[in-house]
């Protein structure tokens, strides 16, 4: 009987020693978001660009949004920039992909400190998905030799 209490006590101590900055969701360990770099990294992980027909170059799009103390989206996210050369169809595809990304990423698992710091503050994030652009030609003017 005393041995059983020892193991129960040992398991209780072990359970209390697990770091609180890790959570488990569906068997996947998720780090808690502790700073703005973690917020941006998490958004980049959630980003899934839309499927475009062959030859479309992609685009840039910027979204402005706010989060609550608990990591939920506060208010309505607003698109503040889109590549000017994008077609209306591409714009709609990218706007949808951005909103789906924010839905996938929220609620953010904020630490207490980050939740208080981020609550109600505007966050601007630019998605740069220019895929099929031709590679820029390297200018080698600085490498040219001159004879004196």
Task: Please provide a written account of the structure.
The protein is an alpha+beta fold and 148 residues long. The chain has one domain: Fusion Protein Consisting Of Minor Coat Protein, Glycine Rich Linker, Tola, And A His Tag, Chain: A, Domain 2 (2-Layer Sandwich), CATH 3.30.1150. It is 34% helix and 25% strand. It contains 4 helices and 5 strands. The strands form 2 sheets. Strands 4-3-5 form a 3-stranded antiparallel beta sheet, covered by helices on one side. Strands 1-2 form a two-stranded antiparallel sheet. The N and C termini lie far apart (97 Å).
Major sheet: order of its strands? 4-3-5
Using the coordinates above, name the CATH class: Alpha Beta
Helix content: 25-40%
CATH topology: Fusion Protein Consisting Of Minor Coat Protein, Glycine Rich Linker, Tola, And A His Tag, Chain: A, Domain 2
Give the total of beta strands: 5
* Residue fraction in strands: 25-35%
Instruction: Encode the helix/strand succession as letters.
Output: HEEHEEHHE
- Intertermini distance: 97 Å
Entry keywords:
alpha+beta; 4 helices; Fusion Protein Consisting Of Minor Coat Protein, Glycine Rich Linker, Tola, And A His Tag, Chain: A, Domain 2; single chain; two-stranded antiparallel ribbon; 148 residues; 5 strands
Write the layout of secondary structure elements.
Layout: H1 2-16, E1 22-25, E2 28-31, H2 36-46, E3 58-67, E4 73-82, H3 88-105, H4 112-118, E5 122-130
Antiparallel strand pairs: 1-2, 3-4, 3-5
């Amino acid at each position: 009987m005393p041995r059983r209490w020892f193991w129960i006590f040992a398991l209780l101590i072990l359970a209390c020693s697990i770091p609180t900055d890790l959570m488990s969701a569906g068997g996947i360990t998720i780090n808690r978001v502790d700073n703005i770099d973690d917020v941006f990294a998490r958004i980049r992980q959630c980003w899934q660009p839309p499927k475009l027909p062959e030859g479309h170059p992609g685009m840039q799009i910027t979204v402005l949004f706010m989060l609550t103390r608990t990591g939920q989206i506060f208010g309505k996210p607003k698109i503040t920039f889109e590549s000017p050369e994008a077609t209306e169809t591409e714009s709609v595809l990218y706007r949808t992909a951005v909103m789906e990304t924010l839905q996938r990423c929220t609620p953010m698992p904020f630490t207490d400190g980050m939740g208080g710091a981020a609550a109600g503050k505007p966050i601007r994030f630019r998605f740069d998905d220019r895929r099929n652009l031709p590679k820029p030609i390297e200018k080698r003017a600085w490498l040219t030799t001159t004879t004196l």
